[in-house]
Every structure is written in C-alpha cells, then in structure tokens.
User: What shape does this take?
Amino acid sequence: MNVRKLLIIAVENWPAKVLSIGLAIILFVFHRMSSLETRFFSVPLNIEHNGPLLPSNPYPRMIRVSLRGEANSIFPILEEDIEVYVDMNKLDVPGVYAIPIQWRKKGTAQGVDPLQITVDPMEIILTLDHRISKVVPLAASLRGQVETGYTMTSYSLNPSQITIEGPAELIWSISEIFTETIDLEGRRNDFFVTANVMNRDPLMIVRGNGISEFHGIIRQIIPVRTITGVPIAITGLSERFTGELDVKTGSIRLEGENQANVDRFEPAPNFLSIDCSGINEPGTYVLKVISGATGNMRARAEPEEIKVHINRAAGAGRP
Assistant: This one.
C-alpha cells in the first residue's frame, strides 16, 4: 500500500517534475561552465609529412591555443604538452589545399577533465610542391675594409658548395647561398674563421653541419707610379764622337712603401741615361738604360735597352 502511494505521488504532476529536474541540470551545467577559467598561449605548428611534397608558401609557424577548464587543472599544463599539427601524409599530388589544424594532448594535459581545447586558426591554406635537392655554390658575405695599405687578394671556403632541399619552385630559383657576415675591418694578415651558412627561407633545408671555414689572403699594397716622358741622356761619350738615340725619352715605374713619397718624387736631370764610356769606334750599339738614385724606392726604366748610333764628330780624326 505504501509503495502504491509512493508511485502515485511520484507520477503526480510528472511534467512539472521533469521540467524542474531538467532546469536543475541546466543550472548546474551553467554554473559549472561559468566557473571555468580560460588560458591562452601559442605553440609551434608541426607539419607531418613523409611523402614527396613540401609546403611552398609561407604559413603560420605559431598557432594560438585556448584551454578552458578549472583553474587548478589548466594552469599547471605545460605548453609543450599541447601539440598542434597538420597531417599531409595522405597528400601526394601538388596543389592548393585547405588543411585542418589538429591537436593532441601529452604529459600534463592528459587526464585533465573538464578541458576544452580550441585552436586559432582552425585550418591553413598550403600550396604543396615536389621535394627536390640540388648543389649550389657557397659565397662569403663580407663587411668592412682591411687596414689601409693592404688588400684581400683572394679567399676560399671549405666546403665551397652546399646541398639544399625544399619545394621545387623555390629551389630552382636559388643560384647560391651566403655565409654569415665576415668582418674584414682592420685586418692586415691572412686569417681563418668559421662561418655559419645562412638560411633565410624557412621553406628551405640546408644539408650538412651548416658551417664553412673561410680563409682570407691579405697582401700589402705596393704604391706604384709611372712617370712618362723622362729624357734619356748620353753620358761618358768621348768628344771625338756624337751619339743619336732611336728613342729620346722613356718612362719610370716607381715602387715604394709610402704612397706620399712615391707621389712626391721628381726625377733629377739625367735620371735616365746610357753609359757610352766604353765606345771607341763609330757604329750602332744597344746599351742598357740606367736609372738614377731613388732612396728607398725602386725604379724600373722602360725601355730597358736602347739603340744609339755613334758617329765621328766633325773635325775629329782617328786616334
């Protein structure tokens, strides 16, 4: 009898009771949701692919993640334990694709409940191209000037070539790769440095250890000046003879250690000459052109030798 009364009471006005229970559940859920906290951070986007294609257009490298849950549950979660990725493993035809961004929980994020995870953006547009590789020359990026009076005559890199890999359109457009900047400022001796190989395009992969050895060859600059139109004098010729040169003037190539001294130098009279003191008979002779004193500078005459025609002087008889 008591059981029957209980059943009658339970089903009496049941629509109102069901509505009340439903409302209570909604209020409970609403209260719980309103008490949840939200946390935001950004994590790297991983591109998962084992096939022949690679992205050939820029895409977001960092993805914004929001965690919603109880404060004491979501704030201890490490950022690296929310992994964000796109899966390209099933794509094998070049083209443009809208690919959803997915996420997975690891470590401290596992077992947390309630936990709502959302990502922004929810998908990315990727242009996919064939993966290729090729070998390109490596060039040095240089900055500054060696010490005044010196010059870098040459340099070498080891290795001098680099293998690069990436989407076909990008890789075919690259003709050389540069090192990081190498500073020449104030150098006056040969030198060795190691330099990183620069990769300024995130879509490209540089194979190897990414380091090259640079060897610079530096030499001192020898100041040089050429003075033209310098008269060539005939010296030491006996008064019994006269001399006639094929060429009346020559030039001086002057070398020294100090540019100012080289620039100031002026040849003295008879600076260039030929010595005819050993000539005792008329005729045509080829004699060396002699340079005068230059202090600590070096002088080279041009021409080095010259023809001189020797004749008897008027009124001069044989000895």
